[in-house]
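Q: I have 432 residues here and want to know how they pack in 3D. Can you give me a structure?
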Amino acid sequence: MEKKPLTVTALNKYLKYCFDHDVNLQYLFVKGEISNFKHHGSGHFYFTLKDEFSQINAVMFQQYAKNINFQCEDGMKVIVEGYVSLYTQGGTYQIYVSNIILDGLGELFLRYEKLKEKLAKEGLFAPEHKLPIPKYPKKIGVITSNTGAAIRDILTTIERRFPLCEVIVFPTLVQGEYAKDDIVKSIKKANLYKGLDLIILGRGGGSIEDLWCFNEEEVAYAIYESKIPIISAVGHETDFTISDFVSDLRAATPTAAAELAVPNKADLMLYLRQVKNRMNQSIINNLKNNQVRLQRINQSYIFMQPHRLYENYYFRLDKYLTILEKNNPLTQINKKQESLKLINERLNYYFEKRYSTFNFQFKKLMEKLELVNPLSLINKGYAIIKKEDKTITSIKELQNNDKLEILVSDGVIYSEVKDKEVKKWNNLLKKQ
């Protein structure tokens, strides 16, 4: 069967489809050397990435290129991050770069990406776990080196903006092999400090190696487990550390962190003046309104002719007096008293009758209770035998040497079983 020929455009579109749907080409890292580098006026980077035997064209668009904080040059060894696709008009495939890392930092970057992905899956970056930053903190803890520009910038900024706030410094290593353990220790120590409202954690800028302690897993978990909100203030505006993602708020620099942590006293004073002015104006308006109301009340006919208030009551009183004269209440009262007397006599009669009935029934019940009262039986010469507070009703319940209590009408007899003999009371009574 003869195949229908494709147009060049159709072929290139098909090849682009193949590139774009290959998962292995959608996110990858490629290591190589930059050559033919060109920084276009539009802000895009165009260059070739090559090794000893091959090369591939690369493009980095302006929105990604602006984040690169070093000067790219020919001959530079790098690792690029991006995806591979086909440019249909030129019929060439190339790598579309989203990030460039110097080759010496490639291993650290890969560790960073792997940890970032792991912690994201565990929910450490989730917004629902972020604590709110207090609007007016009274005490702020600063975890950083007690020497250097970062601590000075934080202290001077807070003092300038909100001098009412107290700052507690937790001197901490923020660079080097032991920095991560010291940071974790300081975060835990700050959480135990009484009355602390907020923590600023960070340092001034530096290389990725200098900032690496803020990319450690132990530090990330310490920030996540903190009961006090934390502002990350690692002074590196373009790159994010793991600490930035976990913290409750990220600031680009230590100074920016201090500005986010406290309000500006000038703004507060302006706000208070505005509130004061609104309150004064509100009071003035209320006074004016009340003065108008008072003037209206003073001019009302009630104040001008107060006797008119009770004129209607005079008429109503005369009306009721007329009705009372026509219907003498004394006659009605006498009738009601006679009726009440009869009702009272009937109630007394029924009460006495019911009382006699209940009293008779009560006496009968008392007589019945007296017949079964064990104390009555004792008074007639009978006794109650107990062993260990249990009443004995059968000889089968006793053994020789058992200790007994015999209750009679005027006391208790303590005895001991020497012997026992089973007898039938019916036969015994017949013999008697």
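Q: Anything worth noting?
A: Residues 329-371 form the longest helix (43 residues). The first strand starts at residue 28 and ends at 39.
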